[in-house]
């Protein structure tokens, strides 16, 4: 009983803190990411007080219907990134291993599964879900992970199954995914006991597409030399396009960010002081070594100007067709970067190499993410063949910091940068 | 038994069997990687469906395309393809399974020249109306793709024959399982494993005749088998180390049932011969026991293993967990909890490319068997 009262008081505290923050934020000209995330997580955590429903959703899942239904979306993967950045991944993964989960499993999943049982991590765990939304356009792992959580929390699970498009997006896939969106809407209506307002959904979708255009424009400011931001900045700013795209606050935030980046570009301010070399990053960031890696590359006057990861949240805008945004959703959500064949991924990597005029490719071979990492060796070969570009593969893990060796990776970065420098010198002559 | 010797010769060198088969019959051979491949369609197209298992030995080429944290099954399959040892295959079908097989299909397409390469992208969930409709749709598509690739017509008559033949094979395999439950030692675990592998490789009509003979002989045999051994159920993906059966038997155990891809998951489910063959085929794939890469409810895999344990009167379960196999590794803790609740003891065996030393493994099995 005492514990329950304490829990309740804690919720009130979080709720009031979030409310105050939200109120003061209204008068702040530049909103920081930290402010916005505090408001977001305190609203989510206070859901039992406000009566709002909470849905856990995968990072590639369609969040717009949740926003349109006033359901608070919560992202275990975003939480995983926070755990990684706080260097708390090793401890939580170890706990999952003690629960019987193999150390070879995805570290987002491992840390989330154990975190749910102890409310650990940098924000004391996620708010409990009322429902789970699992879209497998990013991997098959999320299906298994969400099954575990659906059993643990005993809440309904909706699976949006987006068949992989190895070589084509077939009419069969289009029909299947489109009809699942109707099932998705029905699932939400039954979970919330209210009807979905389709006008509102269309509005949210249009705003989401608008946000994606903005996000692409922000990423494209790095075409300037020197680049006004690095991929590490993009990893930081991406949190909102993942979690809250479709809300007006995010449009404001990115409009402001775009202005800042354009301004920096116009004034020739580079993110890396003496940018001489430009690099492309592949795969999910190594969250526990962001600052370290950023310094390592900067010490070589190298700027990671683009990456295949953050651009995944705006890469399918080309599939928005006609004037019914709901009908576009199937294709937009099915044909994302990870849900296509390796050869098509390689093609996109080469397009990015040309677009951002990079001198080298850094591939994070991520033990936690098989669909992102298997095929990288082929992508590397294709890039070397088609563009003759030096490539560096770093084997690591996005969250689990336990086996990372700074000394070893640093030596490899040094050697890689030597090759790039030599190659650039030669091409000048 | 003469038939078992024949089967063991084939599974000892399946590639030689395939080459000879091709020379003698002129038939085409279609490779596949997962028990969710609708073999019935390949059969109806007049080709031999051949399950590719890969190798555990001498990986030289696949490491240039796959990182160290990829499972030995996927690596072994790629190795065989890159080394051209599978050159007798006319084409290959990749059903969507897990993340690793998904990328294997891409890497294969980029690096291996084959006459045809078909991705059969199954639904991941099987328990909704739209998923069922989608499965029907892609089965039709696969039929068309196969017809084009093999330049044949798949007729209703050949399809009906496929359904009938596969039903007969599966019924006999089920019978063999039932006989094993009654008299476990009547056939060794390793021989049993060979029979299952042969079912995925041999000319199916010939296999049907062979298995018929084996079942009849066992049924009519009055050989008394007294076995005081502890009865075990194996659970996992593919068993790539048949010597495990020997080691279990030496340790005082005997396998009486399984939930394996190289086992009951491949045989379970009967096709309805009173509906259209395509519908019958689809329905079976929707209803057979799932592999963990598919979704058909939250607890059905655990329930299925408990059912197998009960029906086979087993004393315990051995999980064979292939290292780096995500779907099985995710299911393991909750299934173990379900078994604990039912007081069914279980042990976990992590399988790498190479098994641990035999003596060590035998001790582990003995320790487990002693507590049963």
- What class would the helix/strand composition of chain B place it in? alpha/beta
Q: Kindly state the mean pLDDT of chain B as a whole number?
A: 95
Question: Architecture of the largest domain in chain B in CATH?
Answer: 3-Layer(aba) Sandwich
Number of domains of chain A: 2
> What kind of sheet is the major sheet of chain A?
4 strands, parallel
Total number of strands of chain B: 8
Which overall shape of chain A is indicated by the principal axes computed on the Cα atoms? globular
**Treating each run of at least 4 consecutive H or I residues as one helix, how many helices of chain A?**
19
Summarize the model shown:
Helices cover 56% and strands 10% of the residues of chain A. Chain A has 429 residues and is an alpha/beta fold.
Question: Characteristics of this structure?
Answer:
heterodimer, A: 429 residues, alpha/beta, Rossmann fold, 2 domains, four-stranded parallel beta sheet, 19 helices, 56% helix, globular, B: 372 residues, 8 strands
Tell me what the structure shows.
The complex is a heterodimer of chains A (429) and B (372). With 429 residues, chain A is α/β, with parallel strands linked by helices. Chain A folds into two domains: 196 residues, Rossmann fold (3-Layer(aba) Sandwich), CATH 3.40.50.11890; 227 residues, Rossmann fold (3-Layer(aba) Sandwich), CATH 3.40.50.11900. Chain A is built from 19 helices and eight strands. In chain A, helix 14 links the parallel strand 5 and strand 6. In chain A, helix 6 crosses helix 7. By secondary structure, chain B is an alpha/beta fold. Chain B folds into two domains: 151 residues, Rossmann fold (3-Layer(aba) Sandwich); 214 residues, Rossmann fold (3-Layer(aba) Sandwich), CATH 3.40.50. In chain B, 52% of the residues lie in helices and 12% in strands. Chain B has 15 helices and eight strands. In chain B, helix 6 crosses helix 12, helix 7 packs parallel to helix 9 and helix 7 runs parallel beside helix 12. Chain B is globular and about 55 Å long. The relative contact order of chain B is 0.13. The model of chain B has no long low-confidence stretch (mean pLDDT 95). The chains are: A alpha/beta (429), B alpha/beta (372).
């Amino acid at each position: 009983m005492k514990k329950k009262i304490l829990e309740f008081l804690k919720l009130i505290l979080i709720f009031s803190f979030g409310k105050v923050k939200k109120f003061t934020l209204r008068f702040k000209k530049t909103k920081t990411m930290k402010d916005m995330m505090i408001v977001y997580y305190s609203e989510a955590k206070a859901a039992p007080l406000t009566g709002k429903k909470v849905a856990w959703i995968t990072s590639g899942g369609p969040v717009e219907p949740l926003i349109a239904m006033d359901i608070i979306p919560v992202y275990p993967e975003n939480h995983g990134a926070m755990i990684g950045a706080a260097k708390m991944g090793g401890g939580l993964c170890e706990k999952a291993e003690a629960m019987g989960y193999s150390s070879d499993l995805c570290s987002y999943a491992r840390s989330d599964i154990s975190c749910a049982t102890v409310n650990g991590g940098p924000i004391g765990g996620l708010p409990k879900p009322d429902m789970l939304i699992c879209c497998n356009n990013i991997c098959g792992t999320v299906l298994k992970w969400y099954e575990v959580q659906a059993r643990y929390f005993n809440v309904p699970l909706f699976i949006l199954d987006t068949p992989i498009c190895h070589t084509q997006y077939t009419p069969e896939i289009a029909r299947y995914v489109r009809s699942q969106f109707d099932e998705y809407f029905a699932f939400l209506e039954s979970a919330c006991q209210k009807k979905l307002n389709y006008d509102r959904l269309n509005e949210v979708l249009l705003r989401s597409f608008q946000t994606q255009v903005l996000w692409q424009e922000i990423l494209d400011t790095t075409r300037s030399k020197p680049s006004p931001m690095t991929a590490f900045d993009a990893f930081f700013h991406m949190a909102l396009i993942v979690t809250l795209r479709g809300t007006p606050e995010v449009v404001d935030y990115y409009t402001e960010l775009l202005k800042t980046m354009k301004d920096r570009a116009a004034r020739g301010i580079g993110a890396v002081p003496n940018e001489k070399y430009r690099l492309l990053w592949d795969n999910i960031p190594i969250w526990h070594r962001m600052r370290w890696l950023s310094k390592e590359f900067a010490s070589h006057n190298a700027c990671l100007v683009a990456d295949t990861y953050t651009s995944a949240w705006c890469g399918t805008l080309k599939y928005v067709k006609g004037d019914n945004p709901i009908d576009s959703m199937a294709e937009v959500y099915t044909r994302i970067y990870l849900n296509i064949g390796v050869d098509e991924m390689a093609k996109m990597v080469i397009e990015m190499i040309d677009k951002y005029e990079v001198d080298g490719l850094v591939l994070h071979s991520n033990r936690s993410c098989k669909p992102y990492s298997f095929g990288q060796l082929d992508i590397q070969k294709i890039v070397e063949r088609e563009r003759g570009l030096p490539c560096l593969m770093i084997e690591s893990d996005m969250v689990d910091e336990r086996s990372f060796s700074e000394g070893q990776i640093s030596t490899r970065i040094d050697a890689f940068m030597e090759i790039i420098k030599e190659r650039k010198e030669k091409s000048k002559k | 038994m003469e038939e078992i010797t024949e089967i063991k010769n084939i599974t000892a060198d399946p590639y030689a069997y395939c080459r000879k088969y091709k020379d003698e019959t002129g038939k085409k051979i279609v490779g596949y990687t997962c028990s969710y491949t609708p073999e019935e369609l390949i059969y109806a197209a007049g080709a031999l469906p051949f399950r590719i298992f890969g190798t555990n030995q001498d990986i030289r080429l696949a490491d240039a395309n796959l990182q160290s944290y990829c499972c030995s099954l996927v690596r072994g399959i790629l190795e065989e393809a890159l080394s051209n040892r599978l050159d007798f295959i006319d084409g290959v079908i990749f059903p969507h399974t897990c993340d690793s097989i998904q990328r294997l299909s891409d890497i294969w397409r980029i690096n291996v020249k084959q006459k045809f390469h078909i991705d059969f992208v199954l639904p991941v969930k099987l328990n909704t109306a739209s998923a069922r409709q989608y499965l029907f749709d892609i089965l039709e598509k696969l039929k068309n793709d196969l017809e084009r690739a093999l330049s044949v017509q798949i007729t209703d008559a050949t399809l009906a024959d496929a359904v009938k033949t596969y039903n007969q094979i599966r019924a006999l395999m089920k019978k063999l399982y039932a006989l094993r439950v009654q008299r476990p030692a009547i056939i060794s675990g390793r021989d049993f494993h060979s029979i299952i592998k042969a079912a995925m490789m041999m000319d199916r009509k010939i296999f049907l005749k062979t298995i018929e003979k084996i079942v009849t002989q066992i049924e009519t045999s009055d050989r008394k088998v007294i076995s005081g051994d502890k009865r075990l159920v194996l659970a996992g993906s593919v068993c790539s180390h048949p010597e495990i059966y020997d080691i279990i038997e030496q340790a005082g155990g005997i396998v009486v049932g399984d939930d394996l891809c190289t086992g009951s998951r491949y045989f379970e489910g009967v096709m309805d011969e009173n509906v259209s063959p395509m519908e019958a085929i689809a329905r079976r794939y929707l209803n057979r026991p799932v592999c963990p890469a598919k979704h058909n409810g939250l607890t059905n895999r655990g329930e299925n293993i408990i059912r197998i344990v009960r029906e086979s009167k087993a004393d315990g379960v051995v999980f064979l967990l292939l290292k780096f196999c995500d779907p099985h590794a995710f299911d393991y803790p909750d299934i173990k909890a379900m078994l604990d609740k039912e007081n069914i003891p279980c042990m976990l065996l992590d399988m790498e490319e190479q098994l641990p030393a035999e003596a060590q493994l035998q001790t582990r099995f003995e320790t487990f068997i002693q507590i049963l």
